[in-house]
Amino acid sequence: xxxxxxxxxxxxxxxxxxxxxxxxxxxxxxxxxxxxxxxxxxxxxxxxxxxxxxxxxxxxxxxxxxxxxxxxxxxxxxxxxxxxxxxxxxxxxxxxxxxxxxxxxxxxxxxxxxxxxxxxxxxxxxxxxxxxxxxxxxxxxxxxxxxxxxxxxxxxxxxxxxxxxxxxxxxxxxxxxxxxxxxxxxxxxxxxxxxxxxxxxxxxxxxxxxxxxxxxxxxxxxxxxxxxxxxxxxxxxxxxxxxxxxxxxxxxxxxxxxxxxxxxxxxxxxxxxxxxxxxxxxxxxxxxxxxxxxxxxxxxxxxxxxxxxxxxxxxxxxxxxxxxxxxxxxxxxxxxxxxxxxxxxxxxxxxxxxxxxxxxxxxxxxxxxxxxxxxxxxxxxxxxxxxxxxxxxxxxxxxxxxxxxxxx
Length: 408
Description:
Distance between the termini: 30 Å
Protein name: Glycoside hydrolase family 5 domain-containing protein
CATH topology: TIM Barrel
Keywords: Membrane, Transmembrane, Transmembrane helix
Transmembrane segments: 23-44
InterPro entries: GH, Glycosyl_Hydrolase_39
CATH superfamily: Glycosidases
């Protein structure tokens, strides 16, 4: 599931506590990168592993946001992909687009509830929806695809006027080495198949989810992740040049001695260092971060507060020569309930509203996705089930009305 995995209070204990390019440029880039990065891609080992963790589960500001005008008439290759009504005009330049990241459960949500939730998100003023596109689920057997779950949700999102950010990741066992490294060439093939199927529907592609945690990448490996991006991003540029490509998807973390997690700053430095120099222009459009801060507010000054560290993360990008890419915040939220990780419903409201304000204040941030809309379960003691702004039964938490006021 796409949600936080480490309590920020544990982090405190550990610590002591592009603008979008023209399609022609990106198409040309595809050919040059394949040649320049071929050696890196071919170096990824193949093989099997016994399990794959994680399968349980922007762009330039304002009017330049990629994907926003993409709901146009054309021939669609899958059922349910008929054109949706045009969304309203993009926000004014410098604004931040807001959406929801509802987690993996949306793929199996009952039909009527799915359509109600998406319509409610749109009525709230949301423009974006982040949805997992699991390689492990879609291509359980090599060359055999089951797109049905994503067809349904992508079609419903389109009908609701929401722009889809597809999170492509989670390798099947047949495409994973014994060391837990996903096969980059196989991943690029899967991404190509996904882009051919969903190009008219997907406004942005996010490559993997939280690769700096062992839960989603058995042994976090920035260099291996760079090979994955090098293999997949040029394919996306060639097959879906109008869509944004987003990399990183970095979770709150510290540099663990056992290598089980890597901080966003360290991961990014190593990731950039593994790419060709000078940095290929247009390889991707944004770097995504999951700046969970609970129980602290986004603007807090705690050392471990990932939201407050966003300027430091941005500085890593600039120092690497990547001042063009934007920053997308593709998950942010806080759990209510009775667990020791929970916050009060009032504090949840304050955190989400402040996240919207802080994201709009930071000039390098172009998108914010809130995790989540609906609680994943009804047990108040399960923190992972209580990130929604509405309960599992659909009843509103105070955060819903607070967000409505903030978005107006």
